[in-house]
Amino acid sequence: MPSRKYADGEMVMGRWPGSVLYYEVQVASYDDVTHLYTVKYKDGTELALKESDIRSQSSFKHRKSQSSSSSPSRRSSSRSRSRSPGRPGKGRRRSSSQSREHKNDKKKTIQETAIALPPVLVLFKPSENNTKRYNGEPESTEKNDTSCLILEHKLKPDLEVKRVLEQYSLRSRKDEKKKEEIYSEKKILATVKTVEKAPSKTKDLEFGGRIGTFMLIFFLPATVFYLLLMCKQDDPSLMNLPTLPALESLWETKVFGIFLLWFFLQALFYMLPIGKVVEGLPLSNGKKLQYRINGFYAFIFTAAALGMLLYFQFELHYLYDHFMQFAVSAAAFSLALSIYLYVRSLRAPEEELAPGGNSGYFIYDFFTGHELNPRIGSFDLKYFCELRPGLIGWVVINLAMLLAEMKIHNLSVPSLSMILVNSFQLLYVVDALWNEEAILTTMDITHDGFGFMLAFGDLVWVPFVYSLQAFYLVGHPTVISWPVAAAITVVNCVGYYVFRSANSQKNSFRRNPADPKLANLKFIPTATGKGLLVTGWWGFVRHPNYLGDIIMALAWSLPCGFSHILPYFYVIYFICLLVHREARDEHHCKQKYGLAWERYCQRVPYRIFPYIY
Question: Comparing C-alpha atoms, which of 527, 543, 537, 498 is closest to residue 595?
Answer without folding.
Answer: 527
